[in-house]
Design brief:
The structure holds 2 protein chains of 2 kinds. Chain A is of the alpha/beta class. In chain A, the strands form 2 sheets. In chain A, strands 1, 2, 3, 4, 5, 6, 7, 8 and 9 form a 9-stranded mixed sheet that branches. A 4-stranded mixed sheet of chain A has the order 10-11-12-13, sandwiched between helices. In chain A, a hairpin with a 5-residue loop joins strand 10 and strand 11. In chain A, helix 12 crosses helix 13. By secondary structure, chain B is α+β, with helices and mostly antiparallel strands. In chain B, a hairpin with a 5-residue loop joins strand 6 and strand 7. Chain B is elongated, with a radius of gyration of 30 Å. Chain B starts with a helix and ends in a 47-residue tail after the last strand. Chain B is built from 16 helices and 12 strands. The chains are: A alpha/beta, B alpha+beta. The interface between A and B is medium-sized, with 31 and 29 residues.
Chain lengths: ~400, ~500
């Protein structure tokens, strides 16, 4: 009996502690909150304030079965503040519901901000706030205003920022030119010595006025947002862009590439196409006579996907020739990318980090002028390409 | 309080009858006394026999309907009418024993014994000039035939189930266990109903101490009457204040056989097809006899599925409410947007919505059990329409909540033990309230308390969560997974410790 009473007392104590120690409750009904899916941050130099654009989902327009009244699937609105938190506070003046930031899909950075201000100052709030994730992709607008870019409606994915994330994923999966850069990648690159962040850029193609209205969904003459180059930063500021195929070098050296297509000459006029589906690279960095030497060893495997010259590929020599040409092409793409970065004096590949990890003494001596050293570095690229398959057909058509 | 009062009343009313009085020598007086004690009921048959060639007068008394009347006519009354008895004989009862063709004949001389024999279906022969009576066992009660089980069905396995007749039920088990070690102990429970209760176990396999404990607890039951085995269950369970079943019930003879072979004790009661099995462990409630009749792989998968169904039935609404009111960050974005779209126009908070749906469903379920069969289709149409369509269209509840509640309901029916479903049902509401106040933190805290409670439970001394807590590695072969039958060498915990091996040559090791 006594034992029982003790047991009851203890269980009541435990229940009591559960109630008391639980801290505050954060009860909110779903129809009292606004789910923020995208945030765009820009800087207005004249007034020295941040301008934050919020993309908030309009739930009833996204219902599987229509309760919608034909409005836009998202609502974009802007607010300003000296800090990002202040801007968020000011946003309550214009929006009726409490924002929740845990579902942000994309962070957009304005070109103004990246050029005039430093990236260093905007990610602190993302990492410090427990309610926000840091595995969110980041993009940068190029030649366009943030709000205009976020306003372009998309048809396949109703929510514009989700469609942008889809484009990045698709390009990085199939083309190999863009990688998904997330907030923590940027924070890591900003804080680490010997590496600089890169962010993919987006631009508008078409008329931005019709793009922001329902017409964009209804007509076939659509305004699109497309991925346009990769922004290169130096000490947190935007210094230039790497464009087109050259951006592949970034993905190859960071070993993030999945598949990529490679165009090779087969005779004077025509090309063949190769699909690289497995690629591993290994980079070595050393300092010799106060000059940096960068060696990149690439092993790639691919398939022939398109033949436009009538050469008999059942012969070993032909395949070997194509392999050699593919190697040259790949080497060129990689080198071109590195040259652009060298001109901008920004070590976006993280070679400095490799040097730090392998030759600590040399790194300590040279880390002050590393960007200079990088820009004058000697680059050796060795590519080893193997063609594994020729597809479903052996002989090309007799042209 | 109520129990005490009712028992007292019963005792005082019992004292008015002439319970311990002895029979007199006068036949007419005796018959008169019996008639008076039984209130001269209309189903009481008293047949006076006075053959002209016979010097003796007999009275044959029985109650119509609970005794076998054709048998009495043929084997009792007819010999009494046709045989001639010697008036000089001093051993008239011996002579009667020789002519009456009934298996069991006893001689008694108190009114108490005679009355209890009559009300339990026996036939009493009173003899003139003799202060004692013969009691013949002629009990026969109309009973249902053996049909397929209605609540615990299987695809493969025996198709018979228990009936309301105790003897039929024990015979169904005895025909399956043809061992001299099968033991059956009888007792009477209920001071008014005098219900026959029998406990069955296999000597040497069942633990002696558990058998003793079961008998002990049964003997301690002091009540005016027991109607269903649930009454016994209510009295013998270790812990009264728990939603979890600590006594199992089944209407399947093969389930009883399986449990007897695992060293458990079965309690039979007349008047109900539900047989109780003790002791019970929590994991046992997820086992269906069919687990052993099917391939071990599908048996294991189904067991895990049932465990999943239990957790679903317990947690689904609570976790859903916690997620959408406290932890929106944990819901995948697309799903959250979709749920938000559904909840946009709902006027109630999520917890109210959940309660509306849960209570509507509980009402529907209750109505489904109680209503007359003929209106069944009407109910299902209305239920399906209201729950599935109209409530959503009207904007009272969201479609997501309808899905959650239906999944919960279906999951609670997937459990092989109905009592376990009831436990999940009652705890679900508790969890729902906690979830709406404190989110997943509350759900976790409540689960912890439920877990502590389950650890403290015992069923006839066996820890409720064994063999998981306390953990016994050897017995895991038949808990979450059902290993192949040849691997299940040992009997589980409740069985007699000296006799554990059930497969292979038992003498080999000794």
């Amino acid at each position: 009996m006594r034992e029982n009473r003790v047991r009851t007392k203890i269980s009541f104590l435990i229940i009591f502690l559960f109630v008391v120690l639980s801290g505050c409750s954060n009860y909110t009904e779903l129809n009292e909150i606004a789910i923020v899916l995208g945030i765009g941050i820009d800087y207005i130099p004249e007034k020295d304030v941040y301008e934050v654009t919020y993309q908030v989902v309009n739930p009833s327009e996204n219902a599987a079965r229509g309760t919608g009244s034909g409005g836009t699937p998202v609502i974009n609105y802007k607010s300003r503040g000296k800090t990002i938190s202040e801007a968020a506070g000011n946003s309550t003046n214009i929006f009726p519901r409490k924002n929740i930031y845990s579902h942000i899909q994309l962070v957009l950075i304005g070109e103004q901000l990246a050029k005039k201000e430093s990236l260093n100052f905007i990610f602190d709030v993302f990492e410090r706030d427990a309610g926000v994730r840091v595995n969110v992709p980041v993009l940068i607008t190029r030649n366009a205003d943030i709000k205009t870019t976020m306003d372009i409606l998309s048809s396949i994915d109703k929510i514009p920022v989700r469609s942008l994330v889809g484009k990045v994923m698709n390009a990085s999966d199939l083309l190999g030119e863009h990688g998904e850069i997330k907030i923590y990648d940027i924070i890591e690159n900003l804080t680490n010595e010997g590496s600089e962040p890169t962010i993919s850029g987006i631009s508008i193609r078409g008329n931005s006025k019709t793009g922001a209205s329902k017409k964009n969904i209804e007509s076939m003459n659509k305004t699109f947002i497309f991925l346009n180059g990769i922004a290169v930063f130096n000490k947190g500021k935007l210094v230039g862009w790497i464009d087109g195929k050259k951006t592949k070098s970034l993905q190859i050296i960071k070993n993030k590439i999945r598949t990529s297509s490679l165009r090779i000459h087969c005779d004077q006029k025509r090309y063949n196409n190769l699909l690289v589906n497995h690629l591993k690279s290994k980079s070595k960095v050393d300092l010799q006579n106060s000059q940096a030497v960068i060696t990149i060893q690439v092993n790639a495997f691919g398939n022939l996907t398109e033949l436009l010259c009538n050469k008999d590929i059942s012969k070993r020599e032909v395949i070997k020739e194509y392999q050699r040409k593919g190697e040259q092409e790949l080497e060129k793409e990689i080198k071109d990318g590195i040259i652009v970065a060298q001109k901008l004096e920004s070590d976006v590949f993280g070679f400095g980090e490799i040097l730090r990890n392998t030759h600590q003494k040399k790194w300590r001596k040279s880390k002050q002028q590393w960007n200079k050293l990088f820009s004058q570095a000697k680059v050796n690229v060795k590519v080893n390409l193997t063609i594994e398959g020729t597809g479903m057909r052996i002989k090309p058509y007799p042209y | 309080m109520w129990k005490k009062v009712s028992l007292k009343q019963h005792k005082s009313s019992g004292n008015t009858s002439s319970s311990d009085d002895l029979l007199t020598k006068n036949l007419i007086e005796n018959v008169g006394q019996i008639k008076e004690d039984l209130g001269d009921c209309s189903d009481l048959n008293v047949r006076m026999i006075k053959h002209k060639e016979n010097p003796f007068a007999f009275a044959v008394i029985h109650i119509d309907g609970i005794s076998n009347t054709p048998k009495i006519d043929e084997h009792v009354i007819e010999p009494l009418l046709t045989n001639k008895f010697d008036p000089a004989s001093r051993t008239i009862k011996d002579e009667l024993q020789q002519v009456i063709a009934v298996t069991n004949i006893k001689e008694k001389n108190t009114f108490k014994d005679i009355l209890s024999a009559i009300v339990s279906g026996g036939t009493v022969i009173l003899i003139d000039n003799d202060p004692s009576a013969l009691i013949l066992s002629t009990r026969e009660i109309e009973s249902r035939s053996i049909v397929e089980p209605t609540t615990q069905t299987v695809i493969r396995g025996p198709k018979d189930s228990f009936t309301e007749n105790l003897r039929t039920n024990t015979s169904l088990v005895r025909s399956r266990i043809q061992s001299p070690n099968l033991r059956l102990d009888s007792m009477i429970i209920g001071e008014v109903t005098q219900t026959q209760v029998e406990i069955m176990y296999i000597k040497d396999i069942a633990d002696e101490s558990i058998v003793k404990e079961v008998k002990n607890r049964l003997q301690k039951i002091k009540i005016d009457g027991i109607i269903e085995s649930a009454y016994i269950e209510g009295f013998i369970q270790d812990e009264m204040q728990t939603p979890f079943p600590t006594v199992q019930n089944t209407e399947r003879p093969d389930a009883v056989v399986g449990n007897l072979l695992e060293g458990r004790v079965a309690i039979f009661m007349t008047g109900t097809p539900y047989v109780l099995i003790v002791p019970v462990t929590f994991t046992q409630l997820f086992q269906s006899p069919e687990d052993y009749y099917q391939n071990q792989y599908i048996g294991s998968v189904l067991r895990i599925l049932r465990l999943g169904a239990f957790f679903l039935a317990l947690y689904a609404p609570a976790v859903y409410v916690a997620m959408i009111t406290h932890h929106q960050a944990l819901v995948p974005t697309v799903l959250l947007v979709s749920i938000a779209a559904q909840r946009e126009a709902i006027p109630f908070p999520a917890i109210v919505e959940a309660f509306i749906m849960e209570i509507t469903f509980e009402v529907l379920r209750e109505a489904g059990i109680r209503m007359p069969r003929a209106v069944g289709s009407a109910l299902s149409i209305v239920g399906a329409l209201i729950l599935g369509q109209a409530a959503v269209d009207a904007g009272f509840v969201s479609a997501a909540m309808v899905i959650i509640v239906s999944v919960t309901a279906i999951a609670s029916f997937a459990l092989p033990n109905y009592n376990l479903g009831i436990a999940a049902r009652s705890l679900r509401f508790l969890l729902l309230i906690v979830a709406s106040y404190a989110g997943l933190y509350g759900v976790l805290a409540a689960s912890l308390i439920i877990g502590m409670h389950m650890c403290s439970l015992r069923s006839f001394g066996v820890p409720y969560l064994s063999p998981i807590a306390p953990f016994k590695l050897k017995e895991q072969k038949d808990v979450l997974f059902r290993f192949a039958l040849p691997n299940l060498i040992n009997r589980p915990t409740p069985a007699n410790k000296k006799n554990r091996v059930r497969i292979g040559n038992r003498n080999e090791g000794e």
